[in-house]
Design brief:
This protein is mainly α. It contains 7 helices and 6 strands. It has a single domain, classed as 2-Layer Sandwich (Nucleotidyltransferase, domain 5).
């Protein structure tokens, strides 16, 4: 499992989740380390960003909410079952496609991790910008579909 975030300025640091599952404690640790390091790298202060994650139980856990509130990180209110509005889902798809295009396929879990890291680091900034710029259209499409299926 891989955790990552994106900002307007680029992708943040990636984080390997070793046993393939993530608890709320793991998630808070990732926010404390990988997210904070990513924000610092791009020169963001916690109050500068609006953080988006979905309604996964580890995201809505009291420990997570407390951590984010203590760090003054604003959260984007999130409707249930709304992957159309989640930019990171498109990043995951892009990453999977890029890994799949590789001529040399991974030979081990460690090799797969190396390849995922390489492809993560190569995500074009213009692709990230297009995702951000598509948000108003995404929101309009979801509203028009009354929460139903959209092309996104």
């Amino acid at each position: 499992m891989f955790w990552g975030c994106v900002t307007w300025r680029g992708q943040g640091y990636g984080c390997k989740v070793y046993d393939g599952t993530m608890t709320k404690e793991d998630y808070v640790h990732i926010l404390e380390t990988t997210l904070q390091d990513s924000l610092e790298y791009y020169g963001y202060q916690p109050g500068d960003v609006i953080f988006q994650h979905d309604n996964d139980p580890k995201h809505t856990a009291k420990a997570t909410q407390t951590y984010l509130a203590d760090k003054e990180i604003k959260i984007l209110p999130w409707p249930a079952q709304s992957p159309d509005l989640n930019l990171i889902e498109h990043i995951w798809h892009y990453l999977k496609v890029q890994v799949g295009k590789r001529e040399k396929k991974p030979t081990s879990v460690d090799n797969l991790w190396e390849i995922v890291q390489e492809e993560w680091d190569r995500i074009p900034l213009d692709y990230i910008h297009k995702l951000y710029e598509s948000m108003p259209s995404r929101v309009q499409a979801v509203l028009k579909a009354k929460g139903g299926y959209t092309k996104y």
